[in-house]
Write a structure and sequence with these properties.
Strand content: over 45%
Order of helices and strands: EEEEEEEEEEEEEEEEEEEEEEEEEEEE
Distance between the termini: 28 Å
Number of helices: 0
Low-confidence stretches: none
Number of strands: 28
Length: 307
């Protein structure tokens, strides 16, 4: 018995099934499927970690779930095409990227309710979001026009836009807010941008593998993982040296990831294989494989390494 039996579940979004697989992290089996709105793609914890927010893109809704018990708390409707989502570090803002509608929405967050403050037209297909640590700037990739856009959070005005490599997807910022890492899903690596000045500068492309897509911090604030969806690998990048320091096999089209609290295991959605994979970063191999639903995407657990 003990601690393992008390661990909170692992959540895996099944985008084409409109539900969530609830995984027992002790037995590594799916215990239930939780219905959501249409096409859930990404999810995020509220700042107080009392709710897991599932963004249902085609359902125009958010499903709030208890991250400990997997019980639905409430459904918020009328949220326009929430593909990707993120809370600002100061806990005052909730941002969504409307992937198919070409805008980013800014909601005020009072700890419970969302109030739409501004809708910002962005250009073709806003994909993933990142917010700097001081809650000053929102960054978003434009996957169909190969651009990176910066928006001032206080004024909700676009500060700049710059070209990227092919089909930019997820973004990850360095702890000092000076560097952004952008996964190039249409390419073979991660593009690095210096955003310390008034205008961004593309400084490097780190070769990781075909279809570089989603990021997850390793927990030490020094390294990040990127899933290479086409190459079927996950690369570990040192943010200081901007070099790949390790690679792990991840068959089935690896996508979104979470990392165990001790930093040893990567939980990754195998998008094309309908599985959740557990990768041991010490043994460098897949040690668990759990069947889930169609097109698994977002992955999250409350018992996680530092983000």
């Amino acid at each position: 018995m003990g601690a393992k039996a008390e661990l909170p579940p692992v959540f895996v979004l099944n985008s084409l099934d409109a539900n969530v697989s609830i995984i027992d992290p002790d037995k590594w089996v799916e215990t239930q499927r939780l219905a959501t709105g249409k096409e859930p793609h990404h999810l995020y914890l509220t700042p107080d970690e009392k709710s897991l927010v599932i963004a249902n893109a085609l359902g125009d809704s958010l499903t709030f779930v208890d991250p400990k018990t997997a019980q639905v708390q409430r459904v918020v409707r009328g949220i326009s095409d929430p593909y990707h989502l993120r809370f600002s570090p100061d806990m005052k803002w909730f941002i969504t990227a409307a992937n198919r509608l070409n805008h980013i929405d800014f909601y005020r967050w009072d700890g419970k309710d969302l109030t739409l403050a501004q809708r910002v037209p962005t250009g073709k297909t806003p994909s993933h979001l990142w917010i700097d640590s001081k809650s000053r700037t929102v960054y978003s990739t434009m996957q169909d026009s190969d651009e990176l856009v910066a928006i001032d959070l206080a004024t909700q005005k676009i500060k700049w836009r710059t070209k990227t490599g092919p089909m930019p997807a997820d973004i990850y910022g360095s702890p000092d807010d000076k560097t952004l890492f952008v996964g190039l899903t249409g390419g073979t690596g991660v593009e690095v941008f210096d955003v310390s000045g008034e205008q961004p500068k593309s400084v490097q492309i780190i070769k990781t593998g075909a279809g570089a897509h989603a990021f997850r911090g390793s927990g030490d604030h020094k390294h990040i993982y990127v899933s290479n969806r086409v190459a079927n690998t996950i690369s570990k990048i040192d943010m200081g040296t901007r070099m790949v320091v390790d690679n792990y096999a991840a068959p089935g089209g690896p996508d979104c990831m979470d990392v165990s609290a001790d930093g040893r295991y990567i939980y990754v959605a195998a998008r094309w294989a309908r599985k959740l994979l557990v990768i041991d970063t010490v043994e460098k191999k897949v040690v668990r494989s759990v069947n889930v639903g169609k097109s698994p995407h977002g992955v999250w657990t409350l018992h996680h390494a530092a983000r």
